[in-house]
Amino acid sequence: MSHPTQATANGNDSNKFKGDRSPCSPSRVIHIRKIPNDVSEADIISLGVPFGKVTNLLMLKSKSQAFLEMASEEAAITMMNYYTPATPHLRSQPVYIQYSNHRELKTDNLPNQSRAQAALHAVNTIHSGGMTLTGGPGAESLLLPGQSPVLRIIVENLFYPVTLEVLHQIFSKFGTVLKIITFTKNNQFQALLQYADPMNAHHAKMALDGQNIYNACCTLRIEFSKLTSLNVKYNNDKSRDFTRLDLPTGDGQPSLDATMAAAFGAPGIISSPYGGAAGFAPAIGFPQAGLSVSSVHGPLAITGRMAIPGMTVIPGHSVLLVSNLNPDVILPHGLFILFGVYGDVHRVKILFNKKENALVQMADATQAQLAMSHLNGQRLHGRVLRITLSKHQAVQLPREGHEDQGLTKDYTNSPLHRFKKPGSKNFQNIFPPSATLHLSNIPPSISDDDLKILFGSTGCSVKAFKFFQKDRKMALIQLGSVEEAITALIDLHNHDLGDNHHLRVSFSKSMI
């Protein structure tokens, strides 16, 4: 493999910056361009730290470039997903990042690497001792004792209103946000926010505590809550449970109580034209208050329209663009089953000319957000999935008489939708992909060996199996990897086990 310095010198990376370049496939090495002259090694490392451990760094100041190596490809993907909609800034200058063509950095024999290594060592020392930011296997063991997935957030210097949606947008960069409750206490705007995983809460606290949401105001103060789970009764603009789309909106209380309105001194700033459960702050930030959203910089800047995917009723946000699929094996049905774990899929279209890309239309924008946050960066058929919101408002069906080789399918009335019934228990059992699957609807005639053989027939290795003690219709099965479990779920969900029983398969939060 050519050396990064040589690669840049002979134009391998640099000649691709002119005009539109095709994005490189994911790599744990991130290439950063247009860095300011006075930037330090620690500044560059700080871009990567919130997303995982930074394992190497190469500064090319003469070319205003740097390479940052993360411990895992997943961490690099999370970092790229975070900075794609919100351009990172160093020393108040925008910098541009992309995946590098290099899979790793080899810097052992380079001159001037001692400063980079010293900076890396300093950062890793700070974050060790229970504060390690590695997100890989075994990371759970590094958590502080009793650490909660729930954060308590206080917003100080509240010059502009901070809505539940704004918090959701900021905090979802660090993991799947399950629930948020906002309230005012001691004349302070506060929130409780629950992540799917305590490690996400840990990363978010490390990265966001003390940061300003907007320039010089709305400062976040974050601590771990003593609660380990939140109980949300209503989905409205004060509280939301993103795993329960069926909750009532409550009595439609006004979006701000009197103390909050008094704190702003100008209720006109925050009167939302949208209202209701999907209500959100004015669409272009808060122009009456002189805040130009585009001028805000720093990691929390809310860019462009303050439209938070999954919250708003802006059409078009229920369609996802899925890229980097394996075109040899992918079928619309497979995407229908996989994305159906997180919401009801209405249509799937694999693109005729670029079969590694597909459009998936969910029932609504919240389900699209849920599917994107859980499935982006997961592996399917040997490829790392990349998922973004599509600019399309709906997936078009082929016109009468125009067959498209079965690449577009309409599932609007499919009997396999998991979330048809309001209040269904399925809303409470949405978990990230895991190597352990939850099986249900198993007839009494089926033994554990039958199920092990069935899952083995899909090419998976079965590591463990256990029937539920109280209910033999359900079981847990642990497979060799998350990727195997994803494939098995696609292949075997709704599999006919005889006796008019179709197997139900979902991801489990439990281990065996």
Mind telling me which CATH architecture of the largest domain this is? Answer: 2-Layer Sandwich
Q: What's the N-to-C terminus distance?
A: 42 Å
- CATH topology of the largest domain: the name is Alpha-Beta Plaits
Overall number of domains: 4
Structure description:
- 39% of the residues are buried.
- It is globular, with a radius of gyration of 24 Å.
- The strands form six sheets. Strands 10-11-7-9-8-12 form a six-stranded antiparallel β-sheet.
- The protein has helices at 4-9, 41-48, 73-83, 114-126, 164-171, 198-208, 258-264, 332-339, 365-375, 448-456, 482-492; strands at 29-33, 54-60, 65-70, 89-90, 93-94, 96-99, 150-156, 177-185, 188-195, 212-214, 217-224, 239-241, 319-323, 345-350, 358-362, 379-380, 383-384, 386-389, 408-410, 436-440, 462-467, 475-479, 504-507.
- The protein has 512 residues and is of the alpha+beta class.
- It folds into four domains: 4-126, RRM (RNA recognition motif) domain (Alpha-Beta Plaits); 150-295, RRM (RNA recognition motif) domain (Alpha-Beta Plaits, 2-Layer Sandwich); 319-410, Alpha-Beta Plaits (2-Layer Sandwich), CATH 3.30.70.330; 433-507, 2-Layer Sandwich (Alpha-Beta Plaits), CATH 3.30.70.
- The chain is 20% helix and 22% strand.
- Strand 21 (462-467) and strand 22 form a beta hairpin.
